[in-house]
Predict the structure of DUF5723 domain-containing protein.
Amino acid sequence: MKNLAVKIGFVLILLTALCKIPATAQSGNPLQFLSEVSQSSQSNPAFHNKTEKLVIGLPVLSGAALHWNANFSADYFFTENFDYSFDNFYTSLGKPGDAVAYATLPLVYLSHRNDKRTLSFSLSERALGWGNFDHEFLKFIDQGLLPYYGQEEEFGPFSFKTQVFRELAFSYAKQVNRKLSVGIRPKVLFGRAFYDIQNLNVIVHTDEDRKVLQVIPEGSYRISGPIDVQYDPLKGKTSIKTDFTAGDYFFKFKNMGAGIDLGFTYQLNKETTVAAAITDIAFTTLNYKAYKNTFVGSIDYTHLYQSSDSAAAYYFEPRAALDALTDSLPYKTTSEAFAQRRYELLPVTLNLMVTHRINDGMTLNFANNFTYYNGDANNYLAGYFNLLLGTRFELSSGLNLYNIKQVMPGFACSYTARGVQLYLATNNIARLVQPSKAKNLNLSFGVNLLFSTEPN
């Protein structure tokens, strides 16, 4: 865990494609079209449990989801021989990199319908990540310091934010009348880890008088988690050590937040239903074990190296050079604990949906999912055709239009037996079979156990 925060700041911003930050929110996912699956209510709390049974999701498996959107894929970082290459990443990207990811890992899920009411309860681990970076820094890492001696360069900005928190949610849906159903899902959030670095710049400066090359990071980052951060003014060094307590495994009441989801469905006529929902009107807080670290001074190099030619003199492997750089940063960082509580907003999603029933076994679905987070907006416009095959199998397939510029074929299906239900949904089936090439992918899957509550 040595130098944990600094390594995150430099490595994760650049190598997000390899880190594969897990992710969820239902934006752009056809799971919302599977009416037989109670987890479809994650996109709209007004959706009812249609199984008429007690639904118990298997921990970890039922409701697990991944949402990834970026302008690069994992294979940018590898050559054809699967060797990592910053040059290949730089050439393939060709512009500043950006990525956003959400994830959910379910721990407990329960849902039951009683007449015109549906009650649900869920406990899950959630994570989200957002970042962008100056791709020219990839070239700097690939070339090494030697080619930059005698020059003045500035790389940046670099920004990266990630949150990990536990969500405790209660959902209530009610059929108000024959046409209208409303739903609400209040949430309690428990912050577990947080990292945020905004607009970091790295300056490469040549000091001709001293014959040294200076690497100067400018900026600060905020960090919170099961850690203890101490600044030693005598050594001029910031140290970060692990500091786990029981609350880190269960609930962190000192970093509590709250949220709410709201939704409704309205039946226009016998064939057509409209629905709308806004989810994750929510915030987490930073107060306990939360610190602000600021970069100061420069890292001076008298022994320069190059990283582009392993057969030439002064070669230093790029990965090792980057690691050596991050090892030096704690000596150029000051730290102070938060003086007051901070609030962090979650990505907010607006979901609009229209369902048209063709007959008892066929429906057409149209939806628009708009998500806003940290100044970035993403939009999915989707059209899907649903088919019920008998009483057990439901199939949904269609197209997603991402940000009015990319078309992706999507697919979802569920199988409901007497006591178990299986489901799978993805908005980009072409990349599901080639995940290393995925720039956009939303994947959900699960296994539900079904128990009848009617007397024999």
